[in-house]
Amino acid sequence: MNHVQNRLNRITDNEGINTILIIGSGINFIDLSGAEMLVNEAKRLQQLGGGLYFCNLKPLVYDKIVRSGFINKIGNDHFFDQKRNAIRRIYKKLDRDICASCSARVFDECV
Fold first, then answer.
1. pTM to 2 decimals?
2. Nearest Cα to 68, choosing from 29, 20, 23, 25?
3. Do the strands 79-80 and 19-23 form a parallel or antiparallel pair, or are they unpaired?
4. Does pLDDT of 16 surpass 90?
């Protein structure tokens, strides 16, 4: 999980992005230390004015997060079944000035 934490830090430090969506379809297992790291990263991103969000987690991974109580520490509203729903929710929280200057227009929500 150190790799994941380092990557999240590089995203915030180098790219100035503080709202991150992790698409979890490739995650097969999260251990205790990994879950704790994700909680800490979620809190760090929240302090920066953003947040850490998840979508498409496999049922067994999601169930483990629920049973361990980590979902409550991150916030149930940060977990989504579908990427489309996550992006719709996250988009409402983004800085409109940054969105206005972005030329990528990769999401349906982009104006």
1. 0.89
2. 29
3. unpaired
4. no
What pLDDT band is residue 54 in, cutting at 50, 70 and 90?
Answer: very high
Whole-number Å distance between alpha carbons of 76 and 52? 11
Token pair in block for residue 85: 């729903």
Q: Read out DSSP for the chain?
A: -HHHHHHHHHHHHHH---EEEEEGGG-----HHHHHHHHHHHHHHHHTT-EEEEES--HHHHHHHHHHTHHHHH-GGGEESSHHHHHHHHHTTS-HHHHHH-----STT--
Residue spans of the domains in the chain: they are 2-101
Q: Are 19 and 94 in contact (CB under 8 A)?
A: yes
Q: Which two tokens stand for residue 36?
A: 């704790």
Architecture of domain 2-101 in CATH? 2-Layer Sandwich (3.30)
- Mean pLDDT confidence for 105-109: 77
